[in-house]
Design brief:
Blueprint (H helix, E strand, L loop, with lengths): L1 E4 L5 E5 L2 H12 L4 H15 L9 E7 L6 E6 L16 E6 L4 E6 L9 H10 L6 H14 L1 E2 L2 H9 L1 H4 L3 H7 L11 E2 L2 H10 L8 H10 L7 H5 L4 E3 L2 E5 L2 E5 L6 H10 L6 H18 L16 E8 L4 E7 L45 E4 L5 E7 L4 H14 L4 H6 L3 E4 L2 E5 L4 H10 L3 E4 L8 E7 L5 E4 L7 E5 L1
Parallel strand pairs: 17-18
Antiparallel strand pairs: 1-20, 2-12, 2-21, 3-4, 3-13, 4-9, 5-6, 7-8, 10-11, 11-14, 12-13, 14-15, 15-19, 16-17, 19-20
Helix pairs in contact: 1-2, 2-4, 4-8, 11-12, 11-13
Length: 488
């Protein structure tokens, strides 16, 4: 979905679900700023995008202050526990997810949970410039959770992929499959417990609510987290990783996240404007990732995890912007008390935990491929963008940024244009494209797969822009059922 306007709008938002975008737009409509819109949208994303977003996960937010002009990255990604419990094998199990053409083994249970940062991230975002009361920001999510929302085709598909996780425990089955099967697309889905959680959060510090106690109760069943993990968690403000590209300045997620470093590396090694050049730059970055083995300053020796992700971008008429990407892994299969959400399973995947249920360093911020970004364009536009898509985040953001900054593409064209991804010497290529272009790419990458049409595999870049003169635009990537709204 793409929209544009020059009728003195108040701001723009793009997200991975129509209700997520509408929640943020409601704040803009009522006089709130981009931070208010992002918080309301994040709360709503946990309601209507539960496979991708959860209060039990975490993420990153790139923020621009219209008043000061400062750009800052807030890291609220999960942190590994401060201790390892010997009995953690009690809370670690394997399940198989079915993607149709392939299957993948995931690990779930209390022992797969890293300290969540989502709720601390909401508080830190509000402190950075939120103007509305928290209760007002959570109101759309509370209403949707209690009265229900219609399940979209994309969200239904995601739920079928991770069905074994959504039905792993009695509490999960009661929430996600109360009639024995996952609700079909077009069905009404209610989650009043999540509404109750947001109502409790509106009263103050989440660590002082029953929510924290219920998280710790879940962790007693074989998890590693203690109260010290929750009370000791800190949202980390960081200076963005910036690069001049053409006449634009691009602000990316800095280390310890790896996504921004890889995107910067690819942009620095881009030697042309066609898809062959794009593939070569992405291949160079991927080879550097493989060769680094923790030695390159750009590519850190931290395990990365971001299986299920979603993104929100928002800007307002006063020059504020927020680009935020969040993840819950794929969820750990356990419902926290009666609050209607799962904690993450960030510790349960092979790239974090290659040798078993306790192969991780204690009390360490995990790395991620997620890369919310801001771009200062030479014509005065401010662009906020980012993507979900696991390892494909880096290629999706790289290609959209390159087209915006080097080809002067419109926001819509930059997002709509077919994409490619290079990893471990393998090329995935999305059609359409010039036949000569495709032939050249096949020659460079004998190991390749051609996708006949756009696909969620290649991420979902949701982007907005503001020119500082009241002209806004936005696009939600159709690959992931994105939505964009301009508020007048």
């Amino acid at each position: 979905m793409s929209v544009s306007s020059n009728d003195t709008p108040k701001g723009s938002i793009a997200a991975g679900h129509q209700l997520t975008a509408e929640a943020g737009a409601q704040m803009l409509r009522n006089g709130g700023n981009a931070i208010d819109a992002a918080i309301a949208a994040l709360a709503m994303s946990c309601v209507c995008e539960p496979v991708l977003a959860s209060p039990g996960g975490g993420g990153f937010a790139m923020i621009r202050s219209g008043a000061s002009g400062e750009t800052i990255l807030l890291d609220f990604f999960p942190q590994t526990p401060r201790q390892k419990r010997d009995r953690s094998s009690e809370g670690f199990q394997s399940i198989t997810a079915d993607f149709g053409s392939a299957t993948q083994v995931f690990h779930i249970g209390p022992a797969t949970v890293a300290a969540p940062g989502f709720l601390a991230g909401l508080a830190a975002l509000h402190a950075q410039g939120g103007t509305f009361f928290v209760a007002d920001l959570f109101a759309p999510a509370i209403e949707a959770a209690r009265t229900g929302h219609i399940i979209t085709a994309y969200q239904h598909y995601l739920s079928t992929v991770v069905r074994p996780i959504l039905t792993a425990t009695e509490a999960a089955r009661a929430l996600y499959a109360p009639a024995g099967e996952l609700p079909a697309a077009g069905s009404l889905f209610c989650n009043p417990g999540l509404g109750d959680m947001y109502e409790e959060l509106a009263d103050g510090d989440w660590l002082q609510t029953a929510i924290a106690g219920q998280i710790l109760k879940e962790q007693e069943l074989g998890g590693h987290l203690t109260r010290a993990d929750l009370t000791g968690y800190r949202v980390e403000p960081r200076a963005p990783l910036s690069i001049n590209l053409g006449e634009a300045t691009v602000h990316l997620n800095p280390p310890p996240a790896a996504g921004g470093a890889l995107i910067r590396y690819a942009l620095m090694h881009l030697e042309g404007r066609d898809r062959t050049a794009f593939a070569g730059a992405l291949d160079a970055a991927d080879r550097a990732r493989l060769a680094a083995k923790g030695d390159l300053k750009l590519l850190l020796d931290r395990p990365m995890r971001q299986q299920g992700t979603t993104h929100i971008s928002t800007v307002d008429a006063n020059g504020n912007a927020c680009s935020v990407t969040v993840s819950n892994g794929t969820g750990n299969g356990e419902i926290v008390g009666g609050y209607g959400f799962m904690l993450n399973n960030i510790l349960g995947e092979a790239d974090v935990n290659p040798h078993g249920s306790a192969d991780w360093s204690m009390n360490r911020r995990l790395a991620s491929m997620m890369c919310p970004a801001l771009i200062d364009m030479p014509d005065g536009r401010l662009i906020a963008l980012g993507s979900g898509g696991s390892s494909r985040i880096r290629s999706a953001v790289f290609q959209v940024v390159a087209r915006l900054c080097l080809e002067e593409a419109t926001l819509e064209d930059a997002v709509r244009t077919s994409r490619l991804h290079v990893e471990d010497g393998h090329l995935d290529l999305e059609l359409p494209g010039a036949e000569a272009d495709i032939s050249a790419l096949k020659g460079l990458f004998p190991d390749h797969r051609i996708w006949p049409e756009e696909n969620m595999f290649f991420g979902g870049v949701h982007a907005v822009s503001a020119d500082g003169k009241g002209v806004f635009s936005g696009i939600g990537d159709s690959r992931r059922e994105g939505a964009a709204m301009i508020v007048e």
